[in-house]
Amino acid sequence: MPTINFLSDFGVADEFVGVVHGVIARVAPEVRVIDVTHGVPRGNVRAGALALLRAVQYLPDGVFLAVVDPGVGTPRKAIAAATAVGVFVGPDNGLLSPAVALVGGATSIVSIENPEFRIPSHGSTFQGRDVFAPAAASLANGDATIDDLGPVLDSTQSLLLPLPEAGEGVVSGEVWWVDGYGNAETNITPEDLESQGLHPGAVIEIRVGAQTRDVPWVSAFADVDPGQPLAHVDSAGLISIAVRGGSAASQFALSDGTGIRVASPGPKRAK
Description:
Helices cover 21% and strands 28% of the residues. It is of the alpha+beta class. The strands form two sheets. Strands 7, 8, 9, 10, 11, 12, 13 and 14 form an eight-stranded antiparallel beta sheet that branches. A six-stranded mixed beta sheet has the order 2-1-3-5-4-6, sandwiched between helices. The radius of gyration is 21 Å and the shape is elongated.
C-alpha cells in the first residue's frame, strides 16, 4: 500500500491536518497516511527536523510529507527530494535535510512549480494544502514522478545540527528535545561519555548553568526511586535526562537548546 508519512506543526485544534488529509484522499484515495506528529512547536524548524530524523528509520518507504514552514508565502521554495527510501516533500528551510542525509542523501531535488500538481488559491499561506499535499499524493499514487513536479535544483537549504565537545573528562552539549513527559534528550551519545571515562552504572555530574546535580547513569526509569533523577540512553540512542514519575525539564530547568555539561562527580574541575 502506498504510504505518506505526514509531520507538521499544525496541531489539532484547527482543521489544518484534516484538510491536508482531505486533499490527499481526493487525489489518492488508496494511499495510507501515517500521522507521525502534528505537535511540533509552531514554526520550530529544528524541532521538526529532529522529529523527522528520529522517526524516519521506523517509517515505511514512500512519501515523507513534512510541513513546518514559518516562511510560507515568501520566495522560499517548495521542494521534493528523491532518496533511496522515497521522496521527501516540504519547504526548503532545512526541515528535510537531516533525515535526507540519514537515509543516504538525495539523488535529485526539484522545486515544486508545475501548476498541474498544485491547488489554485487566492492566498499563499496554506501551502500544506495547496502545494505539498497534492504533490505528495500525486507522487504516492504514481500520477507524478519527481521530475514532473518542476525544475531540478542545484542547491537547497541545510540545517546544521551542533555536535557535542569532549575533552579533559567533560562532555559539553545541549538539549535537543523535551518530550511530553519532561524527559530531555541531549545531543550527547554514550560513546561521547565513554570517551571521557564515564560508563553505564556510574554516577555522573550534570551541570546546567550554575546548577550541578549528581545522577546515576542507568538503563531504566525503575532503576531509581520515584522522584529521583537519572541519565539513560533513550530510544534514539542519545543520552537523556529524566526523573522517575516527574519532569526533568522542570527539575533541571531544561528546554530545547539549553547547554549541558556532563562529567565525573567532584569539585576538582573549574566551573
